[in-house]
Design goal:
The longest helix has 19 residues. The protein starts with a strand and ends in a 6-residue tail after the last helix. Helix 2 links the parallel strand 2 and strand 3. With about 160 residues, the protein is of the alpha/beta class. The radius of gyration is 17 Å and the shape is elongated. The chain has a single domain, classed as 3-Layer(aba) Sandwich (Rossmann fold). It is built from three helices and four strands, in the order E-H-E-H-E-E-H. A four-stranded parallel sheet has the order 2-3-1-4, sandwiched between helices.
């Protein structure tokens, strides 16, 4: 069997998980690893001068553990610890391919991925007033700009 790893990245609350779940329901032999499952405990996440917990930075995540999970999945899908379910619909031409969807908001800034989502979605439910505008969006733009300046990436 062939292995295909697809990365979905973009702004927090931009639809990555929703898209990943929809793809999983359509694709055979498909699993998801979500960056959200690798957040450090709140006590280990830094706070900025305004009192915001800085979740939208790589230091808020156990990225080495996430990468290890991805490598474990690619080496031995059955023993990776990733839970799989049968898809609702299948694409016959993909039945001989194992597919892993890796989704998260800072994938491009740690490892190579393939899809970048831009969103116009209204952030609901809202966090503490000013958090999205003061932290989430500026971090998204910062890392997006880094990607656009990286000649290896096509955004």
């Amino acid at each position: 069997m062939k292995v295909l790893v697809i990365g979905l990245g973009g702004v927090t609350n931009g639809g990555k998980t929703t898209l990943a779940k929809k793809l999983k329901n359509m694709l055979p032999n498909c699993d998801i690893i979500s960056q959200d499952d690798f957040f450090k405990p709140e006590s280990e996440v830094e706070t900025d001068e305004r009192g915001f917990k800085l979740y939208d930075v790589l230091d808020a995540l156990y990225m080495d553990e996430m990468v290890t999970s991805i490598h474990n999945w690619t080496k031995s899908r059955a023993s990776s610890g990733v839970v799989t379910e049968e898809p609702q619909n299948t694409c016959d031409n993909l039945k001989s391919v194992y597919i892993l969807i890796v989704e998260g908001f800072l994938l491009y800034n740690y490892e190579n991925t393939y899809v970048f989502l831009c969103s116009t979605r209204v952030y609901q439910p809202a966090d503490t007033p000013g958090y999205f505008d003061g932290h989430v969006w500026p971090m998204y733009l910062k890392y997006k700009n880094e990607l656009e300046e990286n000649e290896r990436m096509r955004v």
